[in-house]
Write a structure and sequence with these properties.
The chain is of the alpha/beta class and 171 residues long. The protein has 7 helices and 5 strands.
Length: 171
């Protein structure tokens, strides 16, 4: 499995070096999963419509970008992730700029092992170091995630180190 992770880190940071090392290790894996079949889900205005879409169609890419799905403790995020349990079609989930914070990010690890997701975008949220550490627990296990976009989340050195360790343990 090829790994791609986007991360913004300060220059000279030990955490950035660890994450780069993890990325290089994963880059040596095969490229067969780098190309995904792409059938976008129809646009949805709210979480209920997104859930109905993934339940009733064979779409492979769900875009929840900018939908504030992580607000209020992430109840809507949790509902959407539960709808993806056992779904063999959706392999790309875009949660960019969706108000996912550390509290709502804690819903993600439990769902990753129960979905077919291979690409997860969390760009532009506020998961912080706690959310990154929580996410790292799933990446080191049975997750199928091979593309993770996590830039603009202020994960800090400890969050980057946790992600790097998870990636290295899953080589």
């Amino acid at each position: 499995m090829a790994w791609g992770v986007a991360l913004t880190a300060s220059r000279g940071s030990v955490a950035a070096c660890l994450l780069l090392l993890a990325l290089c290790s994963h880059a040596a894996r095969t490229e067969e999963e780098a190309a995904f079949d792409f059938l976008p889900c129809p646009p949805a205005d709210n979480v209920d419509d997104m859930i109905a879409t993934v339940s009733l169609t064979n779409c492979t890419s769900l875009d929840a970008q900018g939908h504030s799905i992580g607000a209020g403790g992430g109840r809507d995020l949790q509902r959407l992730l539960e709808a993806l349990h056992g779904n063999a079609h959706v392999d790309q989930l875009d949660l960019s700029w969706a108000d996912v914070d550390a509290a709502s990010a804690h819903h993600i690890p439990a769902a990753l092992g129960k979905t077919s997701l291979r690409s997860l975008s969390l760009e532009g949220n506020r998961i912080g170091a706690d959310g990154a550490r929580s996410l790292s627990t799933a990446l080191g296990k049975d997750s199928m995630i091979s593309v993770l976009e996590i830039q603009h989340n202020k994960i800090g050195a400890s969050g980057a180190e946790a992600l790097a360790e998870a990636l290295l343990s899953n080589v």
